[in-house]
Amino acid sequence: MSAVGQLGATTATPAPPSEPKSGRRLTAYLLLLPGGLFLLLFFVIPLVTLLAASLYDPNGSIENGFSMTWHWQNFIDTMSDYARPFGRSLWYALLTTAICLLLGYPLAYAIAIKSGRWKNLMLALVIAPFFTSFLIRTLSWKLLLSDNGFVVDALKWLHILGPDGRLLATTSAVVTGLTYNFLPFMVLPLYASLERIDKRLLEAGGDLFAGPFTTFRKITLPLSMPGVIAGTLLTFIPAAGDYINAQLLGTPKQRMIGNDIQRLFAAGAYPTAAALSVTLMAAIVVLVLIYIRRAGTEDLV
Amino acid sequence: MTSDLVLTGISKRFGAQNAVQQIDLTVPAGAFFALLGPSGCGKTTTLRMIAGLEEPSTGTIRLGEQEITGLRPYKRPVNTVFQNYALFPHLDIFENVAFGLRRRGVKDFKPKVTEMLDLVELGAFGKRRPAQLSGGQQQRVALARALINQPQVLLLDEPLGALDLKLRRQMQIELKRIQTEVGITFVHVTHDQEEAMTMADTIAVMNGGAIEQLGTPAELYDLPATTFVANFLGQSNLLRATIIGRAEQNLIVDVQGRKVTVPLPRCRVTEGDVWMGIRPEKVFLSRAGTEQSNGVNQLRGAVVTDVSYVGVSTQYLVKLSWDQELTVFEQNTGARGTLAVGDQVDLHWQPAHTFVLDAQQDALAGVEDIDDSGGAG
Q: Which domain of life is it from (chain B) (predicted)?
């Protein structure tokens, strides 16, 4: 920057005051360049390709190629064919988010406010699952919930599960898997926002006649809303597009939209798969926008 | 309406550390009471125990007839103005002030909140968030938020610590006015001796978890009980001395071979080695050889070693024949020209301004900054 700036300053006779500023601006653009290029190559171009593919003629094939026919009908066809897995995906994601919030909030609260010297250990335990692959962990759940596994045996022995009851290949198994896999994404933002709360505010609540529950409702919870919003988004969005859990822990009855997209892409039905992807993306964007609007954007920043 | 706050045998231990040790304290109803001491002296811990935010390890706290030692904070008729205010950032000023009334289910709280905001001159700020207010305004919101509940005792934890000097002076007067107006007992924690002396009726000077001395600002300043109080409240000149006899109501004290008299009630110890103390503004300087009237205490043969002109007064450092330096403040009344470094002077002061302390105590206890300790040694 300085080299460019100085060159400019020496050539222009009365050094214009805007000269160093434009040099600084150039630096900013240079700094943006690598990230920008990356996003262009791996986000913008694939996105445009995907949007284009969703409008291809569905009668084409990989061998013969697809022709761009602005076939809007793709969207209508896919929605009528895949409305059920689509709705199921959103429903599972919502359930997962709700359960993650119920499990994650007390955990994050305990780590942020009550853990004392165990804080770092507890945080490490929350992050520890990431040391193993997502896939391997989900496969372990498959073993854990299997019909011959000790969990099923124990539940049967306790008569919680009927003699022919099973855990694997049920809706509960899929939602449990999703919850397990996305829980850290809920806990970490919640922890971050709870940790930031000035503990004296909680003392002030107590001092001003608010019991522990009221203090939580009136002070802790509103102040942790940024964490709640971030956590629910980080859980809901990937959960809605997930297909590993439904694949490994469910049956075709539990299949989510991700499974269909994956299957369709694998089968070479690009226009249909792309149209489904675009619809899912649009639906999530709309839902998130409504959610943020209702929760108050002010709290998000 | 209010009743005395009584602390009996209060101690607080944090692990192996004794934060507060066996404090007995009575704060009369309606008093403006200050807990004064350096950081880590246990004053804030004491305040937090009164608020219910810490549980005492031993002892009891009573408020009038009611024992409140084990009572949860939200059940005590006590409110706190927190250090750095602890205003709720997600609520506007009106809701911050209304918080306590809402929690107690007070109906028709709106006019009360408006009235309270007017009292602290923030009537127009009800819709703002705390972050949009200046430090002084936040301070007043914190005060309003606590006062609106009409507590029996209002606790103030270094409430002016975050304000600049000018604003602090202004708020000191303001707080004092409000206290007189509402008649609520104020317990004010501060490390600023000037703040405590300006505002409080009674000051408890705390050091190392215990109360060093308790009294009115004038009592503490005029007759400190320990070297810590002598140095922490204002400045003191402390000289090594020995008690050698008694004449009527006075004790005769030997200071490096010169005899000085001190009234008996002003002596904390009556025999043996002692510290003889005198405040810098109570000492008068005169050119060497000037005759003084009988009955004043004198030290002759000193030399001026430093002169600091401060406008209203001049601060001298004066070296005695045994190389100890004393501090002397002299009002610039114009009665005598200022002295210069190297001038030979005599020192004299009234016996009634002298005090005698235990020689076992550290002469530098309570000196805030070692660099200014020239006059204290």
A: Bacteria
What tokens appear for B120 in the block? 């602290």
Q: Is the pLDDT of residue A5 over 50?
A: no
**Secondary structure letter of residue A165 according to DSSP:** -
Of A253, A103, A277, A108, the residue nearest A178 (C-alpha): A103
Closest CA to A256 of A271, A238, A268, A272: A238
Q: Is B97 on the interface with A (CB under 8 A)?
A: no
Q: List b or e across B320-344, with b for residues whose CB sees 16 or more CB atoms inside 10 angstroms.
A: beeebbbbbbbeeeeeeeebeeebe
As a whole number, the mean pLDDT across chain A is 87
A208, A214, A221, A223: best to mutate for the B interface, most B CBs within 10 A: A208
Contact of A200 with chain B, judged by CB distance below 8 Å, is answered with yes
* Contact (CB, 8 A) for B25 and B7: yes
C-beta of residue B320 within 8 angstroms of C-beta of residue B302: yes
pLDDT band at B368 (very low <50, low <70, confident <90, very high): low
Of B40, B38, B49, the C-alpha closest to B7 is B49
Give A250-292 pLDDT, tens digit per residue: 988 899 999 999 999 998 888 999 999 999 999 999 999 998 8
How far A84 CA sits from the closest chain B CA (Å)? 41
CATH class of the domain defined by A84-300: mainly alpha
Select from A200, A201, A209 the Cβ nearest to the Cβ of B103.
A209
Half-sphere exposure for A228 (CA within 13 Å, toward CB): 19
Residue-range domain boundaries for chain A = 2-53, 84-300
Q: Where are the alpha helices (DSSP H) in chain A?
A: 2-11, 19-39, 45-53, 73-109, 119-127, 134-144, 150-157, 171-196, 199-207, 212-215, 221-223, 225-241, 244-249, 257-267, 270-295
* Number of Cα atoms under 13 Å in the Cβ half of residue B29: 10
The C-alpha of A299 sits at a distance from chain B's nearest C-alpha, in angstroms, of 9
Contact A207 B53 (CB under 8 A): yes
User: What φ, ψ does residue B91 adopt, rounded to 5°?
Assistant: -115, 150
Judge whether residue B202 has pLDDT over 70.
yes
Q: Which residues of B touch A210 (CB under 8 A)?
A: 74, 99, 103
Is B130 an 8 Å CB contact of chain A?
Answer: no
Where do the domains of chain B lie, and which CATH numbers do they carry? 5-222 (3.40.50.300), 227-375 (2.40.50.140)
Cβ atoms of residues A126 and A184 within 8 Å = yes
What are the chain B neighbours of A220 within 8 Å (beta carbons)?
none
Contacts with A, B 101-120, CB within 8 Å:
103-104
* Contact with chain B for residue A209, Cβ under 8 A: yes
Residues 6+ apart with CB under 8 A from A230: A189, A193, A300
